[in-house]
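This part of the workshop introduces the protein records we will be handling. The structure tokens are whole numbers drawn from a learned vocabulary of backbone shapes. The record below serves as our worked example for the rest of this section.

===
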Amino acid sequence: MIISKANTKDLINQASILSQALPFMQRYSGKNITIKFGGAVIGEKNLSSSFAKDIVLLKQVGINPVVVHGGGPKIKKMLDKLGVKTNFVKGLRVTDKQTMDIVEMVLSGSINKEIVMEINREGGRGIGLSGKDALLARTKKIVFTGRNTKSLKNSDIGFVGKPDKMNKEVLNWFLESHFIPVISPIGFDRNFNTFNINADTMSGSIASAILSERLILLTDVDGVLDKKGNLLTEISLNEAKKLIKNGTISGGMIPKVETCMEAVKNGVKAAVILNGKLPHALLLEMFTERGVGTLITN
């Protein structure tokens, strides 16, 4: 086999990239990373494959990833197919018993296994769970209270909740093993009823429970933008509060930023919002000096 000078140069560039990543691998080695994978990113073959490669590489170099996924677009598609109508209150899907069954079927039965198999295909040991497995995520029903409640058409949004107790024992068991947990945001209450949990909220609760070095929310936008559309690469908790108050952070970005803020307050070292549509977004964020999203810190 003849290796040309051009080929040698390409190989040297590849080796150089790996060596530049070494300090970051050392920094995060043995640390826990919680990654929320969802939205429009799920289901895109190339992006799912890229994501799976990144996750397997993180585990290979001694980092402990936990994947939490959503699946709103696929849930909507199935509900429409079955003729089940739903609406949203404050960004949360009103979930009656029939809707809950469909949500669980799509999240735990379909999307979860697709992500697991992508990871396994790339040489990892993905294992699928929901918050019901090993009583992972005990959940408290969300009830809207206060002045704004009267203006809501439906203040009781059904089987929708947020975790109030995480099973740290089972999470730590996975972190110490060779397995990569992939968790769907389904929980249970004290009466063992099944509950729908927002995937961002679920990932924040898990990140806090295992004291993650990073909580990473992969979205379909670049991160937090200023009023001119420029990416804010790093903001503090106080700055985030001001940006929400003055309207710079608005709409669907508010709950994502609030999830990050809550996680950081609860012991997560830092949280990141970045564009999951960028190939190898995880590696670019973790193994380069500046990263590619918005870092939220204390």
User: Anything to note?
Assistant: The chain is about 40% helix and 20% strand. The radius of gyration is 20 Å. The domain at 30-297 is CATH 3.40.1160.10 (Carbamate kinase). The longest helix spans residues 97-121.
